[in-house]
Design a protein that fits this description.
Organism: Salmonella enterica I
Membrane topology: Multi-pass membrane protein
Keywords: CBS domain, Cell membrane, Membrane, Repeat, Transport
Strand content: 25-35%
Strand order of the largest sheet: 6-7-10-9-8
Subcellular location: Cell membrane
CATH class of the largest domain: Alpha Beta
Helix content: 10-25%
CATH architecture of the largest domain: 2-Layer Sandwich
CATH topology of the largest domain: Uridine Diphospho-n-acetylenolpyruvylglucosamine Reductase, domain 3
Radius of gyration: 20 Å
Order of helices and strands: EEHEHEEHEEHHEEEEE
InterPro entries: CBS_dom, CBS_dom_sf, FAD-bd_PCMH-like_sf, FAD-bd_PCMH_sub2, Transptr-assoc_dom
Number of domains: 2
Number of strands: 12
Largest sheet: 5 strands, antiparallel
Length: 200
């Protein structure tokens, strides 16, 4: 939403809010109490990695890009950033689903087999790995729920954080090496009844 022109942004209206108003037979007029949310605005000088960090911090899926003259030059979505960073995975080897951002962090496709993650990150074993096949499955197993963005698990000296969800499926993870592996507590593992138990 803009005030007079596109360069004076007020905010945005979530489609879910509009749908709820339709279902409740409420007015769709923007001056009738429709919630206007703050828009994430980023400079056009950000790198893709910096844009990804902005999305994580703000918890938003899209952003408006402004140049040095405070003029809107476009929009960018989280999916745009992830697609560009990950590249086209069709026809590529499974290990190419793991892309190093730097020496201590990786972007990992949620469908990456656990064996590939173990090999790239030098992890000897994942807990109770007979219950899942992919890194996305590992996250769901450990969290014991349908994951959402920013959910995370710490394991074997790494933090596994959900950064993108596609129709309840974990699309992308950000894996970060922790400073001191010896200080990472053992994860609480679910037992056969679904209760959490210590890995120690």
């Amino acid at each position: 939403m803009c005030n007079e022109d596109i360069d004076h942004i007020i905010g945005y209206v979530d489609s879910k809010d509009l749908l709820n108003r339709v279902l409740a037979n409420q007015s769709m007029a923007l001056n009738s109490g429709v919630q206007i949310r703050n828009t994430l605005i980023v400079p056009d000088t950000l790198t893709l990695s910096e844009a990804l960090e902005s999305f994580k911090t703000a918890g938003e899926d899209f952003a408006v890009i402004m140049n040095e003259y405070a003029l809107v030059v476009g929009i960018i979505t989280l999916n745009d950033v992830m697609t560009t960073l990950m590249g086209d995975l069709v026809g590529q080897g499974l290990e190419e689903q793991i892309v190093a951002r730097d020496e201590n962090s990786w972007l990992v496709d949620g469908g990456t087999p656990i064996d590939d993650v173990m090999r790239v990150l030098d992890i000897d074993e994942f807990p109770q790995s007979g219950n899942y096949e992919t890194i996305g499955g590992f996250m769901m197993f450990m969290l014991r729920k349908i994951p959402k963005r920013t959910d995370s698990v710490k394991f074997s000296g790494y933090k596994f954080e959900v950064v993108d969800i596609d129709n309840y499926r974990i699309d992308q993870l950000l894996v970060t090496r922790l400073d001191n592996k010896s200080n990472v507590p053992a994860p609480k593992l679910p037992d056969a009844q679904g209760k959490e138990d210590s890995a120690a």
